[in-house]
Design brief:
This protein is α+β, with helices and mostly antiparallel strands.
Length: about 550
């Protein structure tokens, strides 16, 4: 086979790998989110009569927190917390910090950062007041998410781990169909590269996770306190297990290379267990249907490992080094396995997409997560097309082992060596899919990123009120009313009150307390939606001592 096409395809792989690193750089956010803040105590914007002893935050799932991750400042930006944040109540979803005693009247600012269960840092802030609000001198710097340069390297280590999974366990799975490949030096080197890549990628993720979750730069790469915090986290525990599995696979492979018989059962357990460690630190480990999601994600990663690993060995060894009869014996087995992998990948991928995106076209098209999923789908469709082409060629080769025979049209046009081109193109697209996956893991799920803010325009008795409910999700939401008269002029709101109802769950008359400034046409309130569903808001707007107008509107909370 001519070398030039092979070199061109290799160059294409290099170009895609470089583009992937750029994509990781562009796509690595300062902080990705999965955990959602449900409510705080004190509530955001609350005006208290007495100083609170603690500030607590409750999320929709368990989160991690370090001692300096919740900071509270007075209106002159002096820290007034005890600098020892943690899970004060013992509950994994609630974090907090103790405040100094005898706080004076005024406004206080809370800045917070936690680590979501899927290993990503999220951050935010809010204010509350004691006695009455006061002007805040300046603005706290806040607690940011991951540093961009650290996030890029972390994405690179994650990609290296995926490639190691393909080259190591993926190649070992292929050897079940090609026992003769066990003596090939190229295959052994591929497995070594894969195992080493897996070890380095895992260690790199562990070290980089520390500064990433704290918004620190690479200068804090080996900070002892930060590494300790990672070691005590769920993410750290999983990486330690993964690292141990890689080392065990390295020992097993080394014994095989030294001439000993490959221990089939222990090695098989390692090959099956490694993909499962990816499922337990991603988006599949949190949210709804966790058990089913973990099983689905594990099967998805295992199928990708087997398919791409087989393609790698096929292109580098079977189609370039094996005899024709040997290749024709291996190819049908791989073709059957690849078809099974496609079915598994499609089924589990669709389930995971439904879980993270839902059935919303908006979430699929208008979010980074949805667009990355579409890119993966197009890549997999291209792989399926190339695989179908290869199966067509293969059927002709099996029917007519003599590649010089002119009687079979498929073999006259596409003799067996041309499968190398097809497989190399499959590998190129497969690399792009792995790059998309590396970015996808670090991207906020679409059903959280899509804008669900509620907008309503209501008119009654010559008064028009614009209603905005944001972000339109379960947890804390703001409700804003803006009033105008029949001619579009601002109409000051003297007072407003309201209530919330959720008929499907027999929830009624939850009070909503609005606040408004004198002469303002705007009234605001903070509330918390504990359940998703179709809610109904009933409120009354008073524009004069003798004029009050009532409105009702329905809206969906997701």
């Amino acid at each position: 086979m001519p070398r030039r096409p092979f070199r061109r395809t290799t160059q294409a792989i290099g170009v895609i790998a470089t583009a992937g690193w750029l994509l990781l750089f562009v796509g690595a956010p300062a902080a990705s989110a999965h955990a959602e803040l449900e409510h705080t105590s004190p509530a955001s914007g609350a005006v208290l009569k007495h100083p609170p002893a603690f500030v607590t935050l409750t999320f929709g799932e368990g989160v991690g927190v370090n001692s300096q991750d919740i900071q509270v400042f007075d209106d002159h930006l002096h820290r007034i917390d005890d600098r020892d944040a943690g899970h004060l109540t013992g509950a994994g979803d609630t974090v907090g910090v103790r405040l100094a005693p005898n706080l004076r009247r005024g406004t206080y600012t809370v800045s917070w950062r936690v680590i979501s269960a899927d290993s990503h840092p999220i951050s935010g802030g809010f204010t509350f007041s004691i006695g009455a609000p006061t002007a805040v001198v300046g603005k706290p710097s806040g607690l940011g998410g991951g540093h961009r340069s650290v996030g890029v390297l972390l994405g690179g280590m994650r990609l290296l781990g995926y490639l190691g999974l393909v080259a190591g366990p993926g190649a070992l799975i292929f050897l079940l169909m090609w026992p003769g490949g066990r003596v090939r030096q190229l295959v052994r080197r591929l497995i070594v590269v894969g195992v080493v890549g897996g070890i380095v990628g895992t260690a790199g993720q562990f070290v980089l996770q520390a500064p990433y979750t704290q918004g620190a730069s690479l200068l804090h790469l080996f900070d002892g306190d930060l590494l300790t915090s990672v070691a005590h986290s769920h993410f750290g525990h999983v990486l330690v297990v993964r690292f141990a599995l890689w080392l065990a696979l390295a020992v097993s492979s080394a014994q095989w290379f030294l001439g000993r018989r490959l221990a089939a059962w222990p090695t098989g357990v390692l090959v099956l267990a490694l993909p499962a460690t990816w499922a337990t630190v991603g988006h599949g480990d949190v949210g709804q249907q966790v058990v089913l999601s973990l099983a689905s994600e594990s099967l998805h990663v295992l199928a990708v490992t087997a398919w791409f690993g087989g393609l790698t060995v096929l292109s580098l060894a079977v189609l370039r080094r094996a005899t024709r009869s040997e290749a024709l014996a291996v190819l049908p087995r791989f073709s059957a396995m690849a078809l099974t992998c496609v079915v598994v990948i499609s089924a589990t991928g669709l389930y995971q997409a439904w879980r993270e995106i839902g059935v919303s076209w908006t979430a699929l098209i208008d979010t980074d997560y949805g667009r990355l999923v579409l890119a993966k789908i197009f890549g997999l469709l291209a792989l399926v097309g190339l695989g179908a082409f290869a199966r067509w060629v293969l059927r002709g080769a099996v029917r007519d082992p003599d590649e010089t025979a002119p009687t079979k049209l498929p073999m006259r046009l596409f003799i067996l060596p041309h499968l190398r081109h097809s497989v190399l193109f499959e590998l190129t697209i497969g690399l792009a899919v792995l790059i998309f996956t590396s970015v996808l893991v670090n991207t906020q799920p679409a059903n959280e990123a899509v804008d669900r803010t509620v907008h309503r325009t209501l008119t009654a008795a010559g008064l028009q009120v614009e209603v905005t409910i944001a972000p339109g999700r379960t947890g804390p939401d703001s409700i804003t009313l803006v009033s105008t008269d029949g001619h579009g002029r601002a109409e000051p709101i003297q007072a407003a009150s309201g209530s919330l109802n959720l008929p499907s769950h027999q929830i009624s008359s939850l009070p909503v307390t609005f606040t408004t400034a004198k002469g303002s046409d705007r009234a605001t309130a903070m509330t918390s939606f504990a359940l998703s569903g179709n809610w109904r808001l009933t409120f009354e707007v008073q524009t004069s001592p003798i004029s009050a107008t009532q409105f009702t509107t329905s809206f969906a909370i997701h």
